[in-house]
Amino acid sequence: MSTRRTREFFARGAPTHAPTRTGIVAAIVRKDLTTFGRDRLWMILTPLALFMFIGIYWLMPPRVDETLVVGVHPPAMAAALKIAMGVDESDPALTVVPFEDVEAMAAAVADADAVPEGLERPLVGISLPLDLLLRARLGQSATATVYVGANVPDEVRSAMATAVREVAATAAGAPLPVAWTADDVIVLGTDRAGEQIAARERMRPLMAFMVLVTESLALASLVSVEVTQRTASALLASPARTVDVLLAKGLVGTLLAFSQALILLLATRAFGPGWPVLLVAVVLGAMMMAGIGMLTGAAGHDFIGTLFYGMGFLLVLMVPAVGELFPGSAAAWVQVIPSYGLVEAMVGSSVYGLGFADLAIPLLTAAGWVVVVFMLGWWALGRKLVQT
Amino acid sequence: MAASAISVEGAHFSYGEREVLKGISFEVAPGEVLGFLGPNGAGKSTTIRLLTGQLKPSAGDVRVLGRDVHRDRSQVMGRVGVSFEEKNLYPSMSGEENLRFFARLYGVPHPDVRGLLAQVGLETRARDMVAGYSKGMRQRLMIARALVHDPDILLLDEPTDGLDPVSSEAVRDVIRSRVEAGNAVLLTTHDMHEADELSQRVAFINEGEIYALDTPENLKLAHGRRSVKVRLRDAEGVREEAVELDGESAGARIAELMASGDVITIHTAEATLEEVFIGMTGRGLA
Amino acid sequence: MSLRRVLSIWRKDLALGPRSPILLFAVVMPLLITFLVQGVFGSLFERPPRVGIVDPGDSAVTAAALDLEELRTSRVADVETLQRMVTDHDLDAGLVLQAGFDAALRAGERPPLTLYVAGESRANDRVVVAITTIDLLRSVEGRAANVAVEVVAPGGEGVPLQERLVPFIVLYALFAAGVFVTSFSFTEEREKRTIDALLASPLTMNEVLLAKGLFGGTLAAAMSLVTMALNGALVGQAVGLLLALAIGAVMAAMIGLLYGIAAPDTKVLFALIKTLSILVFAPALWYVFPEWPQWIAYVFPTYWLLNPIVEIGQQGAGLADVWWQLAVGAAICVALVPLLSRLAQRVRAPVAA
Questions:
Q1: Interface ipTM
Q2: CATH number of A68-184: 3.30.1740, 3.90.1010, 3.30.70, 3.40.1710?
């Protein structure tokens, strides 16, 4: 080549069309969203998961049925039964349905179609002899029958038998053997009798987690494909740096997870008085899942391997959300799981309407774990990209 | 002012305990094609990766446009176009989309995607997904991608590997036009014909070492053996005899054969680069 | 058809199996689900109330409560701990007995008794706890009423939820192994193009199909046996059960081959499995909801492998009771053979990435 052209060659300097860091990251994000949108697998799974969870939520009963519906024959014994069981008219625990006919009561207990119109279907039916009260006063024996439906728990069967004996004891004038008044029954915590939190409300964090999990696997799949197809080499041979690629993956993962979880929570009416906390929790959850996605995408050699590693992490992370289905506080080992704070924040805000002040500790714990998990994912994927 | 677009001095690199580059040195000037000729596993692709900054040499100096590749990466990589050995394209994007994406990475606001695709013969398949491209089409798209930001330097790793003759010639035409425009090209191949056709100079690399670096002509002259191949009729049909021209009795033997009247054809046979390579390294290019 | 060649593929798949996450998935998941259903979900849906008792005097009431199956009773060290546990709903209720409670009770002194109730406990649980406590007190007092109570279930005893979920677990074991493992094994060969290498040898496509089916099918049979044993469902006639499991495993493997033939790569296969799994697992829902009309379930091919297994394994039916269902299941398998063979001939490996 001529000397003049050589001089011109070296005089060109840096290209005039120098890309900005923001431009590079934006280009990779746009590319990832395009490829995600054309991925048949995730385009099927994502709406399927959403549709399924939203459907399950709305199909589940909105209230907790905490009423024992008890049929009584003869109707005259209804009042005695209530007294024996220590409930008054307004108590949501018990509904007594009087039956004139024993066979009708037994049939109603056995078969929902046999319930007379206008009456509630009884879970159990108690048939008391007409002369029970007299016999009890006279100290004579008597026989009663308790009709139970299929799958009535043992403790309810036993309680009904006890109620019958207590009717007799009360009629016989035998007082309670202990000094027990209403003042001796103390409700601790917020009394939710009649207003229990429905199972579907408790399941919402689990559903949100499942949606976040699906998107985490989607990101892992996108990442592992980038590594196995070696398009990562092509990216890193351009002005894009490792940190640009990582930032783009983190953004894509967070965006996908957040948007899907948001749709689910909006469709299940999760945003109540505690909505700001819930929103923060969802963002943190999305970031955590993005970190997991980067970690598992870097770990797997192919799609199946990525899926396997991903499921392993995510089953563990879902434990606190599953634990919310059970009453009581979580075991100590559950509280150590990174997602525990997130679940507490989600439940506290969406179910109990708590705010930042009440949920500061779970949120801060969650934020701390998010940083750890995200950084782990960042490190693992960065290392993998450099090795590719 | 640096005279070399690419300059590598005493570069060493190891993958763990295995040393794959053992102090290689070479330069590539603007408007020149340097062919790296060697078998699989010789260190060709590793050299490309050193020049793209994906790998850092454990010793030695690697410069592009006079700048350290790692330290001045942002100034350097915008002027370098790379075509990798692996067809690392996005299969769920079209050819056009792949090019536009990479153009954005290079900060090229309005790339002439159609022109580029026409240059490599893919203009009619611009909107088709890469997943549906044949091997040759993908390789041509790789070349187009390496050119999307109008680079000054091209690093081409096996650019015609596995291509049919028509596609290979199309790729070579593109390379020639870029060289005429002043690009410096480092081309790796294990195809000696390609190295011979395209390269102003050829470097023989084997087991991480450069055994020779010169023009193909000089390499053949310096290390090849000149001979004449004579095809003769004999009692059993046809036989061939090679006469070394460097021997003392060469002339007498050729005269003897010509006088026999049995000669069918006679022509000179130059050493091929592969023969020179085998002679120098003891192994073939495969 | 060469059995030797088929077995060589089968041996190769078996040797590579432990390296495959899918195989581990097929082995681990049914065990995990068994644990979840038996150990966890059972107590979720049908759990008795949890009661804690603070009893410094070692009362007979506490001993009797601990023996009761109707309550989950535990001793608590002190009142503060009890109050905290009830407030946190770690207990549904808590009882506090004073020292010397039994003596005072028997002497008719009507000692005090405090019952703490968790605010989040269900109203019906509160009634059950209260009335059960009264029963315990009366029995310790020695003045129980002279009433015999007969408990009758006019509609028959229902099946506990854990047992109703067993068909689902068995079906999952059959399909995790039979469908997932078979289909992934076949699709991976296509994806990695090793199928080309196999078919360039004397192997025929039918032999490949048989080998893949054998691999998944034997694993399916083994896992379903293990799963049924873990869930206490291995009762009834051994011959009938083994035959039912065998037919089930064959059908699962054949469905797996259909998936494998339809999916050119593992991602498409995964999507297919996820979207079509409702059709495969649907029959199990009829055991969770026995009031649904049974005839609708007949439509699903997997019904004919699942129902005989359930009837023999859980309900003690004999071969004579289920032979016709097994025959339908076997007929479905036989009908799938020519379909599989024809579809498989059209299999081509995917275009290389």
A1: 0.78
A2: 3.40.1710
